[in-house]
Write a structure and sequence with these properties.
alpha/beta, Alpha-Beta Plaits, 3 domains, 14% strand, 4-stranded parallel sheet, 14 helices
């Protein structure tokens, strides 16, 4: 099949983007007996199942490409191969109003196109809302005609959870969903420049996807780092570091975590080794050992709790307002190794 044939097929195909399972990141693989089932519980079509002795099994025949599972995995063991979600933060830079849609819902050509809006996690939604000057609009008008018709319900549930954590005002109030029922209330016109830009972006994506498919698979050990904070967590902490609005920064604190260590800790380093995101580090200062918690890298997976034989660790959601470091200190946390 030529590149031209592949491009033509890309525009008329509704096949879901492929998922990749990175077993070394999966909590069920990293610790035998770990019962993490977030992706299994989130998948609305039961395309993911548990696998013995660990890990998960994907059923590509059931998968509809909503990418909802990728939005809840705390270690990014499940990722979509479509690069457009990773490129979205760069496209959002400098825009006051952010509009997200899939290819089927392009209206003006000004939107940020994603493979599916089901990939937008709670962290994505909050980070984009914190970085935008005005609103974040999710265009969902074509969802009823899609195999992933349940995506609006998934996003509504995530917004409900965020509202319970952060409140209705402030950052959350900037996020709105546009469904088919609301479509007629707004008029949107597309300029020729916007239309051709959208066509160019889709063409470039199709070409890149084809070239990537033709390339040989790289060495998995080189491709995937051993310690890997999820990209959505990186985006959230960048929003925290970049914001000049203290109210916004305070609003983001409930989405981070606090780890406390009791006197039972013997600094064996087991938790440091098992942590999949690099959020824990052993240090020695003046002959005194310390366990350093890098909160900006913690995804709240809780793997360290299950691995600690001394039961010396406690992990809690959220950080108190007095823990709100300066922007300089947040950037230091982001780069601390």
């Amino acid at each position: 099949m030529t590149l031209a044939d592949r491009l033509a097929e890309r525009f008329c195909s509704s096949e879901p983007p492929p998922l990749e399972f990175i077993s070394r990141r999966c909590l069920r693989n990293r610790l035998q007996g770990n019962g993490c089932a977030r992706c299994i519980d989130e998948c609305p079509v039961q395309a993911i199942s548990g696998q013995e002795p660990g890990g998960v099994r994907l059923n590509p025949k059931r998968c509809v490409g909503c990418l909802a599972c990728t939005a809840v995995c705390p270690t990014e063991a499940l990722v979509g191969k479509d690069y457009r979600l990773a490129a979205a933060p760069a496209k959002a830079t400098g825009q006051a109003t952010l509009v997200f849609c899939c290819e089927k819902s392009i209206r003006s050509g000004e939107e940020i196109v994603l493979p599916c809006l089901g990939a937008l996690s709670e962290e994505h939604l909050v980070a984009f809302a914190a970085r935008s000057g005005e609103d974040v609009c999710l265009i969902l008008v074509q969802c009823p005609d899609c195999r992933a018709s349940f995506v609006p319900a998934i996003l509504a549930r995530r917004l409900k959870v965020l509202t319970s954590k952060l409140g209705r005002e402030g950052v959350i109030s900037r996020i709105r969903m546009m469904t088919r029922e609301e479509e007629g209330e707004q008029e949107t016109s597309a300029s020729r420049r916007s239309f051709f830009r959208a066509f160019w972006d889709m063409s470039l994506h199709a070409a890149t996807e084809t070239i990537t498919t033709l390339q040989s698979e790289p060495n998995p050990k080189e491709k995937h780092a051993h310690k890997h904070p999820p990209s959505r967590l990186i985006l959230l902490r960048q929003a925290l570091a970049e914001s000049d609005d203290e109210a916004v920064r305070l609003a983001l604190l409930p989405l981070f975590f606090t780890l406390t260590v009791n006197t039972e800790c013997n600094f064996c380093g087991a938790c440091v080794g098992i942590c999949p995101t690099g959020a824990l580090k052993n240090t020695r200062e003046d002959e005194v050992k310390q366990l350093i918690f890098i909160w900006a890298k913690c995804s709240g997976c809780g793997l360290c709790l299950g691995f600690c034989r001394k039961k010396a660790l406690t992990l809690a959601a959220g950080r108190r307002p007095e823990y709100l470091e300066t922007k300089k200190e947040v950037l230091l946390q982001m780069n601390l190794e």
